[in-house]
Input
Amino acid sequence: MISLTMEEKALYNDEFLQKVPNLLPGVYFIRDLFATYPSVPRIARRFYEDVSAGRFDNIVLKGERSNEGYIVLEGIIENPYKRDGI
Output
């Protein structure tokens, strides 16, 4: 797994780990995930490695390579009113 610098790690934590799991379902490319920042190849590689390793429950690769995009699946939303056993 690629090691990130402290600045890259901060950006990855803020832009990816916090926001990506909450994206709407659809197909995204790495440029879509860097909201207001230019794409950083090392962060893109880290994201690819994390998706390939299954770190995100709702994100999969569209193809075999990262440039083919990522599919954000519809998340399972739990009913807050449902009680166990009912």
Q: What stands out?
A: Residues 5 and 78 are 37 Å apart (CA to CA). Strands lie at 26-28, 59-61, 70-72. The chain is about 35% helix and 10% strand. The radius of gyration is 15 Å.
